[in-house]
């Protein structure tokens, strides 16, 4: 049908209907035999409408095909969206630890080049007191473990004044750890801290090891600041106190604590010159399955040597 025939056909149908209505009203339809023709026309219109409605409806097979296509597209898109989300979280975490290193440097500037003390704790009952931030995080979901949510430790930290006493900056956005504040797990709160300081800046009373003094002042560093890591994003099933131990004595060295792999298998590390970077952990022994409860413990690095441990050793503070 051409473009000009469409309007003509519509007008003719309208006219026929109008005439039939008019003739019926005047009593001429039955007299002149137009009743049957009108009924036939109405029947054809109703039949055409039913066919049109039938054609517009989806069959069950067509509906299932559409659902299958949507499911396939979702399976293709979701991993990419998940990676993009982790990448965005990595950028936020990178900014957090960069600010930590800058705060660490500002503290040293205000304290005659002395860096913030970093003392290890033996356990929850024997804690280091001379350290840059207090608190012992517990991953066992012990009800009402106050340190897990105590933000006073953060706002009273030695570097808190240089962080604007922010609380949110202490937690990596990829950290999913929560603490139980009811016996039936109906009330869970996020733990408040994800970051630790390198054991290279140890300040425990027994700080003489093999005749070498662990650095407490920036002037004592002999390693390049750009290759000396200070803070690290620690895994939620590894972090306890604020001290990240790096095995510098044993061979092959063990992985005494686990760095986080929250950002597509990478973790955040910041350095003594103020910069931060994402480190992709390469050895699968560095990224064992995440525990929902309990500490991951020490990961023995037997032969072959764990390349991630070597990377951390090479970037641990060297001293005079």
Description:
A hairpin with a 7-residue loop joins strand 1 (178-180) and strand 2 (188-190). The protein folds into two domains: 5-56; 72-314, no CATH class. It has six helices and nine strands. The strands form three sheets. It has a five-stranded mixed beta sheet. It has a two-stranded antiparallel sheet with strand order 1-2. Strands 4-5 form a two-stranded antiparallel sheet. The protein is an alpha+beta fold.
Radius of gyration: 36 Å
Low-confidence residue ranges: 7-35
> Taking strands numbered 1, 2, ... along the chain, how are they ordered across the largest sheet?
7-3-6-8-9
Number of helices: 6
Structural class: alpha+beta
The overall pLDDT, averaged over residues, is 80
User: What does the largest sheet look like?
Assistant: 5 strands, mixed
User: What is the string of helix and strand elements?
Assistant: HHHHHEEEEEEEEEH
Number of domains as seen in the coordinates: 2
Outline: globular
Strand elements, count: 9
Brief overview, please?
The chain is an alpha+beta fold and 320 residues long. Helices cover 35% and strands 10% of the residues.
Fold topology:
Layout: H1 5-26, H2 28-32, H3 35-56, H4 60-110, H5 152-155, E1 178-180, E2 188-190, E3 195-198, E4 208-209, E5 212-213, E6 229-233, E7 243-244, E8 266-271, E9 276-280, H6 307-314
Parallel strand pairs: 3-7
Antiparallel strand pairs: 1-2, 3-6, 4-5, 6-8, 8-9
Key terms for this structure?
single chain; 320 residues; alpha+beta; 2 domains; five-stranded mixed β-sheet; two-stranded antiparallel sheet; 6 helices; 9 strands; 35% helix; globular
